Amino acid sequence: MKRIIGVLAALVFTTAVAAPAQAAGERKLDPRPSTAKLAWELQKLPWQSHGRVQVGKIGKSNEGRPVWHAKVGTGPLRILYVTQQHGDEPLGTPAALEFLRQVGTGNGSWQRKLRSQVTVDIVVRANPDGHERDWRFNYDPDADPEYGEKGKGYDINRYHDPAVAPEDNPATEAGLIQRHAAAFKPSIVVDYHMQGRYRGDDGREITASAMWPTHPDVEPAAVDYAKQLTVLAQRAMDAGGGNVSQYPGGDYQGIARNGYGLTGAGSVLIELSDMGPEHEQAQIRSALAAMLAIAKGAGDGSVDDIDPALAEQIPPRGAPIGSADAAHHH
After folding, report:
1. What is the rounded end-to-end Cα distance, in angstroms, of the chain?
2. pLDDT digits over 163-189, tens only?
3. Which is deepest, 26, 74, 105, 272, by most CB within 10 Å?
4. Residues 6 or more apart from 140 whose CB is under 8 A from it?
């Protein structure tokens, strides 16, 4: 009998030790929460976190949907994350929800430390109208845009030019983000997108691509900081089984990566590859790993120890796989 009790006790102990890690790894995250579900998940966070997560709206989309933001932490370093500027590139949004849950509702030593070092504000699903239609643009039937599609809407991620005032911005949601960023004054801006499928020169599939500002007028110090943050993100994503490349992006000042770089922020673009439904959970976790690594590494100052030149060693993206969607130009 003693032996049986001993075995049972051992089993209970083993299960108790194994369960939390397993649950954290296995918890399936909704890759595309509906507009209603996103609102519900966000509005639960303030009470789940005992007020440590604050949720609000930065404004409304053209069709009147809320553009949500959520803030966690009270630290001096200010970080802004933006997800889903392109409505059909969803996976940064569930990663943001999980970041807020982990950092805000958890109260372990690492969460308390991080919250004392940084204030992270997240624009969660910048383009709710585009999400509803599963398309790239916002919704503006009167649009005849330089960037976007006539009769459909604007490509929000071409309208962050710091020379254009938010109230003059034809892309409503980009103007909201501009105004929000100007009030929040972040030192770091990270913009989460999705791309097609690519293979690196070594034959391995690229799981994500990242890039720093490339506009020639961005201050060298801001470029270096963005490169250090890019390396932080790359290391975290690769450590989780990812294979991160450089993103071959342009230098137009309206792209968020360049626009917020021009305002002096360490500005980074992260593009998750659209690898199909069987990889979505891993891709969400990869985006989450980057969010956590950037917040922790910037918060404790360890990012300063990274040589910015290491960013240049991140491999190029390589060739599209099969019918990779050539329309994904961010």
Report:
1. 66
2. 999 999 999 999 999 999 999 999 999
3. 272
4. 62, 148, 152, 153, 154, 171, 172
Task: Say which residue the tokens 């959520």 belong to.
Answer: 70
- CA–CA dist 32, 90 (Å, integer): 6
Do residues 314 and 237 lie in contact, with contact meaning Cβ atoms separated by under 8 Å?
no
110-118 mean pLDDT: 98
How many alpha carbons fall within 13 Å on the CB side of residue 247? 32
CA 112 to chain centre: 22
Return the bridge partners of 78, or none. 119
* Token digits of residue 182: 């100007």
Pair of tokens at residue 111 = 């969460």
What does each C-alpha distance from 296 to 62, 73, 97, 170 come to in angstroms?
35, 12, 17, 36
- Which one-letter DSSP state was computed for residue 309? G
For residue range 220-247, list pLDDT tens digits in order: 999 999 999 999 999 999 999 999 999 9
Residue 326 and residue 198 in contact, taking contact as beta carbons nearer than 8 Å: no
**Residue at token pair 């969460």:** 111
The sign of the CA dihedral 250, 173, 134, 25 is positive
The model's pTM is: 0.90
SS3 content of the chain, % helix, strand, coil (to 5): 45, 20, 35
HEC string of 164-179 equals: CCHHHCCCHHHHHHHH
Residue 196's SS3 state is coil
Nearest-angstrom CA–CA distance, 140 and 161? 20
Q: Which residue's structure tokens are 């120890």?
A: 305
